What we know:
- This protein is mostly helical.
- It has seven helices and two strands.
Amino acid sequence: MLSLVLTILFVHIAIYLVNTIGASTIDSLLWILYLKLPTSTAQNARESQRLKLETLKLKREMNGTSSQDEFAKWAKLRRRHDKSMEEYETMNKTVSGHKSSFDWAVKGVRWLSTTGLKVFLQFWYSKQPVFALPEDWFPYYVAWILSFPRAPQGSVSIQVWSNVCATVIALVGDFVGSLIVQITGEKKEAVPAGEAKKTP
């Protein structure tokens, strides 16, 4: 099993990734993956997409037909379009209901596996030291701050370690992000020699 030091570190990495990538982006990707599975919801989503395309096709045909000159053909297209539109709306409501339920479930699991787990660990291990400090290395007030609020004196508490992990991960993430932006920016600025001659 992972030590408490690494567990807290990995929880904070997961929280940072969720915050950086964005919860809605992760939800959308998981919904797309869920629709790839052989479920009734995926089948309904495919049927909804098919009905949408059929409705749009009928709408285009109806708009291309004159309602005065070819009234019989236009009326037939109108009936088919209305029926297809009604089926699409019904199917779309079903899929939307499944999607909202899926989103709530994903949000719950994401919260429990990141922030909820962090809060639980901080509560459960509040009196247990994450690791011990070398003896007589720090003055009393520093040792007291590092063990705050309930860890034994001369050790690092889970709350302090959690804050250290969050701060270091945020700093490293910002550094890596700015490095990537700088590298990609330099690649975009580099113009091939042939194109530089063509521009006046």
